[in-house]
């Protein structure tokens, strides 16, 4: 290498070197306040950090190590009302935080007062110890702690214990939804709720009689503390379930309470300690304290009370409106509500709906519930009445049919009940479990086809006519399966699973499913009308009044499906237009072929016999816009949005008895109102695009990465 080249290389290397600064002095200046061996944690905590923490015996990763410099609050110290209120509110926020999915060891158990009750007393608590007459004379502030704060902490533990009992009754996914692992500590199961309620009432009466002993500033917080105690009493009584009507009144009292959020008191972190995790029987590393801000916690609590009240109202509703379609619509709107209901509410809905293995809402046998669901489509109550009253001999020709139908109902019952059970899970679990459920419905449909064939043969042998009878049972299975398939696709939007470049694909498949569903509804409706007009007797169909209602409800379903299908078709074409103008772009380097990703997206439908699975080539063919101009396509979209808006405006005024929305009418009205506004806004958007697109002077120009101009 020549000298000149070496000089150039040296100069280049010097230019690439960073300029360094000696920070030794600043470094030691920052360390002077740290003790020997003390660790400094960054806000992030990666896998590499955790390995290093294990090597250096960081307490952050070892439950067995206690932090020597942690100050633990003396629970025997006296507190003024402002601090007591702050502690009560944060203890309450810890309860709500636990229901949000955190561990008890991160929330409720971090309270030093609760640690005292559970660890030192080993959960052995004598209620009489907390009545003032059993204590020595002391200051008013110490009495406040003993008579008010300690009883509230006992009530907080008891509330968690009741929640754990409720969670155990529901079908949920522990750790994924909520952890009710108490780490071997007693949650006061041995103490009756009535004893705790009496203790809280004594606390309120004590505050009433002793409020004059506090100064004027303290009395303001004493009133708020009383309100908190009354709220806790009302909620514990609502959880008692001794009387549903009384529980509803208690919840309404909480919901209408104006001073529920008045002042949160003085919040002090010293009342909460993570050191409890070193004393619990757990193999998990220490976890940080996770308690929601108190305003958020109280707002969540109010939502819990509102949802709880709705569930209890369902359980005492008039039996005449507790039809399968009404209840199913209630579940559909309840599962999709925003903000989403917490785990306690969803478990309560499960527990009340499946009151025991054989009854629905303690009113209907489960097999009767399934029969009613089928009768809502084909008005087949007469058929089921004959089955229930059948006394035919084994040689009777009907016996084989009725026996097959009874076996079918037994098989269908757990599958149909799973629809309601799955709707009580979180959204991710709903979609996953619905994908499994459609396979069960597929197998059930195959079994139902055999029963329908037997029923057809029996009817034809009686009438001696070549009438095409409906496939009642297989048609019902297909009806339910299509509803679940459509819901699975819409759940993808709720879970935000779809990328922008996939939207046209999803709406295209939804358009296809809704067309199949609409065709199926038309077929059911035509069968009902045909057999309604027949003069000869049949065991398949019921009386005139029942058939009229079924026909009206079917027309509503047809109108609703038609509106949804118009919207999905419109959005499918709208996103094709956006793709055409490169406003939505596919990934530059896809990880897999598009046909493979298509199959993955619709994998739950891939192995179903009905409806037929559409392949990716069909989508490409249908998405070809070469035969139609953008202007014509925009006009079609405007027309579709206008038609959909008209349909949903008619739907909005439908009698709730016909729409089967008696249990969720307000939610239904809000949903339809939003859809109408959506149709109007998108119609206007398409008109604006069309006007700009057709302007003779000023064309709409879009600049893409390849610098091409699209008009």
How would you describe the overall organization of this protein?
One of its GO terms (cellular component) is NatC complex. InterPro entries: NAA35-like_N (IPR057983), Naa35_N (IPR007244), TPR_NAA35 (IPR057982). Its main location: cytoplasm. Residues 37-197 form the NAA35-like N-terminal domain. The structure is a single chain. With 711 residues, the chain is mostly helical. The chain has 3 domains: 22-62, no CATH class; 81-310, no CATH class; 317-694, no CATH class. 61% of the residues lie in helices and 1% in strands. The chain has helices at 3-16, 24-31, 47-55, 81-99, 112-120, 140-169, 193-210, 216-240, 244-255, 294-315, 324-335, 343-353, 366-378, 381-388, 397-422, 427-463, 472-494, 503-532, 544-580, 594-601, 616-622, 630-652, 656-659, 665-694, and strands spanning 359-360, 364-365, 702-703, 709-710. The relative contact order is 0.06.
Concise synopsis of the structure shown:
The chain is an all-alpha fold. The chain has three domains: 22-62, no CATH class; 81-310, no CATH class; 317-694, no CATH class. It has helices spanning 3-16, 24-31, 47-55, 81-99, 112-120, 140-169, 193-210, 216-240, 244-255, 294-315, 324-335, 343-353, 366-378, 381-388, 397-422, 427-463, 472-494, 503-532, 544-580, 594-601, 616-622, 630-652, 656-659, 665-694; strands at residues 359-360, 364-365, 702-703, 709-710.
């Amino acid at each position: 290498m020549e000298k000149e080249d070496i000089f150039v290389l040296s100069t280049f290397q010097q230019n690439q070197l960073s300029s360094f600064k000696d920070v030794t002095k600043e470094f030691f200046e920052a360390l002077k306040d740290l003790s020997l061996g003390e660790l400094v944690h960054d806000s992030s905590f990666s896998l590499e950090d955790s390995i290093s923490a294990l090597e250096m015996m960081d307490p952050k990763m070892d439950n067995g190590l206690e932090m020597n410099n942690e100050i633990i609050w003396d629970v025997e110290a006296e507190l003024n009302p402002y601090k007591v209120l702050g502690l009560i509110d944060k203890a309450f926020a810890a309860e709500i935080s636990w229901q949000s999915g955190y561990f008890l060891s991160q929330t409720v158990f971090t309270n030093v007062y609760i640690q005292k009750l559970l660890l030192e007393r080993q959960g052995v608590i004598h209620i009489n110890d907390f009545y003032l007459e059993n204590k020595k004379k002391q200051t008013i502030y110490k009495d406040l702690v003993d008579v008010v704060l300690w009883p509230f902490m006992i009530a907080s533990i008891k509330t968690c214990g009741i929640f754990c009992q409720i969670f155990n009754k529901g079908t949920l996914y522990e750790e994924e939804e909520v952890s009710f692992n108490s780490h071997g500590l007693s949650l006061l199961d041995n103490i009756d709720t009535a004893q705790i309620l009496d203790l809280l009432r004594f606390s309120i009466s004590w505050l009433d009689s002793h409020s004059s002993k506090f100064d004027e500033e303290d009395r303001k917080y004493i009133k708020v503390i009383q309100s908190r105690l009354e709220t806790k009493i009302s909620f514990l009584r609502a959880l008692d379930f001794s009387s549903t009507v009384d529980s509803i009144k208690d919840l309404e009292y909480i919901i209408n309470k104006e001073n529920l959020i008045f002042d949160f008191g003085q919040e002090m972190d010293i009342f909460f300690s993570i050191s409890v995790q070193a004393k619990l029987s757990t193999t998990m590393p220490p976890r940080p304290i996770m308690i929601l801000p108190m305003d958020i916690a109280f707002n969540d609590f109010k939502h819990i009370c509102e949802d709880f009240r709705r569930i209890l109202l369902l359980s005492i509703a008039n039996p005449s409106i507790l039809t399968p379609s009404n209840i199913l619509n209630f579940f559909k709107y309840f599962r999709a509500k925003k903000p989403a209901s917490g785990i306690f509410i969803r478990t309560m809905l499960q527990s009340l709906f499946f009151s025991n293995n054989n009854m629905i809402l303690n009113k209907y046998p489960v097999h009767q519930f399934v029969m009613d669901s089928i009768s809502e489509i084909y008005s087949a109550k007469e058929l089921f009445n004959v089955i229930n009253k059948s006394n035919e001999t084994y040689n009777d020709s009907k016996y084989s049919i009725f026996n097959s139908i009874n076996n079918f109902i037994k098989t269908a019952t757990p599958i149909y009940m799973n629809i309601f059970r799955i709707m009580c899970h979180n959204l991710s679990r709903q979609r996953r479990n619905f994908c499994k459920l459609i396979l069960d419905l597929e197998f059930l449909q195959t079994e139902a086809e055999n029963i329908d064939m037997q029923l057809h043969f029996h009817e034809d042998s009686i009438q001696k006519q070549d009438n095409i009878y409906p496939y009642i049972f297989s048609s019902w299975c297909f009806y339910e399966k299509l509803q679940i398939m459509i819901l699975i696709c819409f759940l993808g939007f709720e879970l935000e699973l779809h990328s922008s470049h996939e939207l046209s694909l999803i709406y295209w498949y939804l358009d296809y499913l809704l067309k199949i569903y609409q065709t199926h509804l038309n077929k059911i409706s035509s069968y009902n009308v045909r057999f309604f007009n027949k003069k000869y007797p049949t065991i398949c169909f019921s009386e005139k009044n029942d058939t009229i209602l079924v026909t009206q409800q079917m027309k509503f379903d047809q109108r609703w499906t038609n509106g949804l299908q118009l919207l999905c078709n419109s959005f499918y074409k709208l996103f094709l237009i956006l793709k055409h103008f490169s406003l939505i772009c596919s990934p530059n380097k896809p990880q897999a072929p598009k046909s493979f990703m298509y199959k993955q997206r619709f994998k739950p439908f891939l192995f179903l016999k009905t409806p037929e699975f559409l392949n990716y080539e069909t989508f490409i063919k249908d998405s070809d816009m070469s035969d139609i101009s953008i202007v014509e396509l925009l006009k079609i979209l405007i027309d579709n949005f206008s038609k959909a808006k008209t349909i949903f405006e008619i739907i909005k005024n439908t009698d709730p008895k016909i729409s089967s929305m008696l249990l969720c009418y307000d939610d239904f009205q809000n949903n339809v109102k939003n859809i109408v506004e959506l149709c109007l806004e998108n119609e206007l958007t398409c008109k604006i695009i069309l006007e700009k697109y057709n302007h003779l002077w000023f064309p709409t120009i879009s600049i893409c990465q390849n610098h091409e101009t699209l008009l």
